[in-house]
Fold this protein.
Amino acid sequence: MLTFFLVTLCIAGVICVPRNGSEHSQIARIVGGSNSGRLEMYHNRLWGTVCDDNFDLDDAHAACRMIGFSSAESFYTAGYGIGQIWLDDIACYGHEHSLTDCIHPTWGQHNCGHVEDVGINCVEARIDGGSNSGRLEINYNGIWGTVCDDTFDLNDAHVACRMIGFSSAESYFTAGGGSGQIWLDDMACYGHELSLTECAHKTWGQHNCGHGEDVGINCVEARFVGESNSGRLEIYHNGQWGTVCDDTFDMNDAHVACRMIGFSSAESFYTAGGGSGQILLDDMECYGHEYSLTTCTHAAWGEHNCGHGEDVGVYCVEARLVGDLRRGRLEVFYGGEWGTVCDDSFDLNDAQVVCRMLGFESAVASYTAGDGDGRIWLDDMACNGDEISMTECEHAEWGAHNCGHLEDVGIECK
């Protein structure tokens, strides 16, 4: 879904909810300021607070996004709430659009007092000048400002586009033309971050730039036409949706496409066909570690020798840890449902691949976690340790196993 401009409506300057009326806006609010204050949740017809136990920046991103902002700048212990404490021990990955999508104990279950009520500082980002291309602007401390182009590169652009709600960036440029505050300078993102606030940069408002150096970004969006995690791959570029040709398209390209859309990796790719309109990309050549198809080598946009019978499709998988953000039972989303992985033959090489697939640096350990339910998706994993995804490793057929849920594997990542 394309997200361009989000405007917040503050009631008496104290309680802020998104003016766009998103599905999550009615169940979360900030108390204390326009974009900063105590986080409160509405559940079971009662407003209540969230405990700061284990609360981190990934949780804050999900909370800010839930209210209608782009991301979080920071979080803190706000205290001074009353009534119910609704949530404790939240464990988000940071890409979620609501705290309700994150791992947490039962509503109302906690070991906290109101002195531990968490607060969040949210920021908003927008493109000024067009739907997906224009000058990048940030709202910080209630004031809109620009970003300087010093050291700004494609990794920074990917993060900025992702922060606004797109899949990734196609390019960046010097836009100029801004006014007022210049908020950020000397950006240094790796490219995987969910928000510019996670990247290294000078102190907010500290810079050596003029508005002639205001940076602009060109963002792209990707989607599947078919199912939520599988279907014909389509890209939104230059104001129109188009398809991708299957010429030279391989598993590395599929991994990048899935990551671009928000999944962990690809399970397979295929010729889907059935598209219409523009064929935007052909002759893809990714290494597999990129964050966007736009970073890979490919023919010029719109240049191809294909017909829509060659439109490529991708099947994506998602993985998660249930228990804690970096340690827990490994679960995989495949065939439309979540399931577990058996610990038979599972070792540190397998854990290394899974941890990298989840976006972590490496694995610390694997162990028997147990306590899962539903499907057991994978058994007899045999990774070398250098694969991009666990889907590339040898394993029994999906759903074929000789295990019980007592053997569900867990991993710890760093």
About this structure: The CA atoms of residues 57 and 216 lie 26 Å apart.
